[in-house]
Amino acid sequence: MNRRFKVFFMRFLIPSFTVIFVVAVILLHEVFQPDPGPEMAIATLTPLQSKSLDNMVEMNKLIISLALLVIGACAAIFVQKYPNLRVKTTSTTIILLTCILFAASSIFSGYVLYDNIILMLSSEWFNPANELIKWPQRLQFYAFFISVVLFGMFIVSYFLHGAVEVETEKASPLVEAGALELKETSVKRSSNQ
Q1: Cα-flanking dihedrals φ and ψ of residue 177, to 5°?
Q2: For position 164, what pLDDT does the model report?
Q3: What's the pTM?
Q4: Is residue 118 within 8 Å of residue 108, measured between CB atoms?
Q5: Nearest to 49, CA basis, from 111, 114, 120
Q6: Is residue 193 included in any domain, yes or no?
Q7: In this predicted structure, what is the pLDDT of residue 85?
Q8: Domain boundaries, position 99
Q9: Is the confidence at residue 22, as pLDDT, over 60?
């Protein structure tokens, strides 16, 4: 690829795509979010509603934590924390950046879900089947799922296409110790036979 195109790509297209994506996610939540609809006010939550609320909050926490893990893994690859796992091509850069954007939109959808739950409870009604809950829940899960698939695509394409060069002198001591241990056990087995 032409050097001038790479510079143009990195300085203009990636930030532009990121801004467009972020604005689209915000508009998706703000403009297309369904109306709450008429609901009956309740004094206290039933045990079933309370359990549903607890499960919903725990699921939201789990997906937010896993999305943060995906962002951390992508960031570790970008800053080249691991010497033999580097971003070498523009396509892998695009995959990782898109992965980060989808994981971040999953986190934002979780925030919208929390906000809608607070809106429901402050208005003294709660219905876990209402679209105010289901809409951000679906978006959160699908954005997280897409980010995991993209990260998996990065890993598979990186390892299957030979982009990884194993550098034994830069390998961690634990890997070297494990490799030495495997060689010694294989020598002992062959000498016993």
Answers
A1: -65, -40
A2: 44
A3: 0.70
A4: no
A5: 120
A6: no
A7: 61
A8: 14-33+46-167
A9: yes
Rg (CA), the chain: 24
Residue 143: other Cβ atoms inside 10 A? 23
Residue with tokens 């020598």: 187
What mean pLDDT is reported for the chain?
A: 77
Rounded to an integer, what distance in angstroms lies between the CA atom of residue 86 and that of residue 75?
11
The span from the CA of 144 to the CA of 150, in Å, is 10
Q: What is the pLDDT of residue 73?
A: 92
List the structure tokens of 187: 């020598």
Domain count, the chain: 1
Inside any domain, residue 6 = no
Alpha helices in 32-46, H assignment, sequence order: none
Residue 26 placed within a domain: yes
What residues have CB less than 8 Å from 107, skipping those under 6 apart?
64, 67, 68
pLDDT band at 162 (very low <50, low <70, confident <90, very high): low
Whether residue 131 contacts residue 34, with contact meaning beta carbons closer than 8 Å, is answered with yes
In this structure, what are the phi and psi dihedrals at residue 81, rounded to the nearest 5 degrees? -65, -35
Taking 60 as the threshold, does the pLDDT of residue 126 lie above it?
A: yes
Residue 109 lies in a domain: yes
Q: How many residues does the chain have?
A: 193
For residue 84, which phi and psi values (nearest 5 degrees)?
-105, 25
Asked if 100 contacts 79 with a C-beta cutoff of 8 angstroms, the reply is no
The torsion angle over the Cα atoms of residues 168, 170, 173 and 176, rounded to 10 degrees, is 0
CA pair distance 81, 69, nearest whole angstrom:
15
